Amino acid sequence: MEHIVTVQDAVTAFADFMEPTDAELDAIEREMPVIRAEMELLDAQIIVIDRTPCELDKRRIRRARRRVLAAHRDHVNGANGQTGGAA
Known about the structure:
Layout: H1 8-12, H2 22-47, H3 55-77
Helix pairs in contact: 2-3
């Protein structure tokens, strides 16, 4: 009979080293407006998956797409409090 052993120690042994660095957390924080805008677009698209979009749905999707584009533009240009980006 073979004994089954846990590998918990092997899995969690390096947990402290696997945490995101401060720089990575800062990068995620800077990208949050883009993530939120993309989530809004996805929500608008999910709403109309199983039905024909009405005029309000179409406007909601267009508006969400514009927000995504604006958030990407601002992120790339460094408008989230960063300096040195192209304006």
